[in-house]
Prior knowledge:
CATH superfamily of the largest domain: DNA-directed RNA polymerase, subunit 2, domain 6
CATH class of the largest domain: Mainly Beta
Strand content: 25-35%
Helix content: 10-25%
Strand order of the largest sheet: 12-28-13-26-25-32
Number of domains: 5
CATH architecture of the largest domain: Beta Barrel
Structural class: alpha+beta
CATH topology of the largest domain: Dna-directed Rna Polymerase Ii 140kd Polypeptide, Chain: B, Domain 6
Number of strands: 36
Amino acid sequence: MVKKSRRKMMNEKTQVFLNGRFIGAHTDGANLVKRLRERRRMNELSNQVNVYYNNRLNELHILTDKGRVRRPYIVVEDGKSRMTSEVAARLKNNEINWNHLVKMGIIEYLDAQEEENCLIAFKEAQITKDHTHMDVDSSNLFGVVAGALPYPEHNSSPRITMACAMTKQSLGIYSTNFFQRYDTRTYIMSYPQEPLVQTSLYKALKLREKSAGQNCVVALTSYHGYNMADAIIVNRSAIDRGLERVTMFKTYETEERMYPGGQKDKIELPTPEVVGYRGDESYKHLAEDGIVLPESEVDSKDVLVGKTSPPRFLEEISVFGTVEEKKRESSLSLKSGEKGKVDSVLITEGPSGNRMVKVRIRSSKVPEVGDKLASRHGQKGVIGLLVPQENMPFSKSGITPDLVVNPHAIPSRMTAGHLLETLGGKAGSLGGIIANATAFSGDTEEQFQKTLKAAGFEETGEEILYDGITGKQIKSKIFMGVVYYQRLHHLVSNKMHVRSRGPVQLLTHQPTEGRAREGGLRFGEMERDCLIGYGASMLIKERLLEESDKTVQLVCTNCGSIATHDYARNKDICPICDSENVEPVEMSYAFKLLLDEIKSLYIFPRIILREKG
């Protein structure tokens, strides 16, 4: 009976947990939560403590452990925000800072659990008696990257996700000390600009110092079918003037390695006596110390740093019977398909204390057909055609667009923010202002229309354009404005790859894989199925046998095993049954490999031959 009443008393009391561990019970949990929060706001409790009351289970959770994601909110009491105009004025005059606001209990950090007990207002106008907190800024809903995107609230969420991913891929100025750095591969934009349409977060993060794009005059129209789907027409003259032009820096490095026998590599100019000497032509850019000279124009497979290594075996007997040590050639050379100028050379020490050389190669990457561009609204596309300025459509004042984008890209993707930016960029360039595109509080369409009207343009942003080829007026008005476009690092010059003959794998005798290894292009199952569907049997044979791993193997007609050529007796013979009845058979080397692997399982595969026809 006593046990039952004690359990009933415990159930009536609020159970208190600290970081998920039960520590006791309290008669009035709701009141305790209120007191703990007051103590925290009065600075008697750490501002890192969060308190959550679950009235359904009558449980109170005090949370102090690390790893909780917490967000700052302005405290609201009796329907009024604690962030008064007096506090805001003191903050503006730098009399107080953020930490003071936290200590004064004006701002507090809430974790996901304490948020369950709160009602948070989006902005001050929405505050009611029931609200407990207010967002510091409505655009705080977004992270760093999404917060820098213009008008995200006007775009569909997948496009915002895409825009975030592509902003990370944009080429600009990644670091202001790039001349002192030797990163593996980086890009620097030649003429970066800050966008005409910005957000407050863009300014707060000082992203203008690391801009990654340019303001382009964009017309929304089709152009002879060359901007079908997501292709973009680009003004060739604008590219000649430096539009979206970047420089690629790539670093190559080599080190004088130590070997277990006490021997060491040596950075030097290899001599013809070295095993694997590449010929004088390969070493033409090297100085006397074996290191390439800065500003040398190097091409694919040219040596950048001459290096020799000790022989694999300590003693090698020469043709004349004397013991000699022959050095091997192990120079650092430019990869195939790459070229550029030597930007700088760094001679330093590696982690192991050995001499290390880093060579930075510089090459200009001018936009070409196939390069990828994207706006900050997830509207990505590749360059489909470069058109000289005289053939581009033009307005009555002689303005020609830098880019011509297909209008079909807008409605199905629901990127109204792209259209707003086009209008805002045009208004900003005419009014000499930077438009504000912060989420939920940016400049409106009506404000842009007033600016355009005052400048003598149509308030809708549409203009009458004339065909650059015929000179005739284009019948419909075309929407034209200024949009911030980024060039992404998917450059066609870094991806272009072709192969006729080249290296093959040692095991399967099939072509190697990948552009870096001068590999073949994979003809997969689906491609094969397509040719089967068309009945193109000879083409399948050519692709999967002739161009891959064709081999001629000797097969014993007696027992069906793979035969060999006995060079001592100079005749073809079967190693299993000693028969000389052997026939050459054309097959894939991968098939011969399969037979060998089956033999390793103690299974004897036989190839039974019969006459053709």
